[in-house]
Design goal:
The protein has 216 residues and is of the alpha/beta class. The protein is 18% helix and 20% strand.
């Protein structure tokens, strides 16, 4: 299908990447985009050697978390805005390894309409993202969904829909290739449908830097 846009963890929910070469004594920073989520799970990483935690809060209630750097942000742009804000404002002092994530407690699976989705596929844990340079790679990036614009058709990694898959892995794409994905599905009131035109316009204006012809 034309106009295929791959979406890592449903609108850039979680990824890890490096800004320095692999080596000893690397500093890791967990950067969370929060809107009044339960942040109690973060305590498991507070105080760990060479791990810092930063929370950007877009909700009205400003949480106090011992050992966590918490900063307010206006409620615009979803998590992608939070991640880009962090990169731009810390460009010269980024950690050797940075984990970007929504602040929802990480857990398996995704269900449409639920605010408690942990967005992790089968065979992948949050600690997999925290570990710098897994298998010598300079990033930890798992594709869990893809959307075809402008129609808003979507496809989902099977590891997000079912647990215990013997052929699933933590690789960028499913180990089974095309067989590791669901059938294409469509929900008429999903944001990828209702906001498809504005998403395509954003792509042309800020990414492709060309004229918006209504097509990807």
């Amino acid at each position: 299908l034309g106009g295929l846009v791959t979406v890592p963890l449903l609108l850039l929910v979680r990824l890890s990447c490096a800004w320095a070469g692999a080596g000893e004594s690397l500093r890791t920073e967990i950067v969370l985009a929060s809107y009044a989520e339960d942040l109690s799970w973060v305590s498991a990483y507070v105080g760990k050697e060479r791990i810092d935690v930063t929370v950007y809060e877009k909700g009205q209630d400003f949480p106090f978390l011992p050992g966590v750097k918490t900063l307010p942000l206006p409620n615009v742009g979803r998590e992608s805005h939070t991640f880009l804000h962090h990169i731009v404002h810390n460009y010269d002092k980024l950690a050797d390894w940075t984990v970007f994530s929504q602040a929802t407690p990480p857990s398996w699976g995704y269900q449409i309409g639920s605010s408690t989705n942990g967005h992790l596929p089968d065979k992948v844990s949050f600690d997999d993202y925290v570990q710098p340079f897994p298998h010598g790679r300079d990033s930890m990036f798992v594709l869990n969904a893809a959307t075809e614009f402008p129609r808003g058709l979507q496809i989902t990694r099977l590891g997000m829909m079912k647990q215990g898959l013997h052929e699933e892995s933590s690789d960028l794409c499913p180990k089974l290739g095309a067989d590791g994905w669901s059938d294409w599905w469509f929900v008429k009131d999903h944001p990828h449908v209702t906001l498809a035109a504005s998403m395509v316009a954003f792509y042309h204006r800020y990414i492709a830097l060309d004229e918006d012809d209504g097509k990807p």
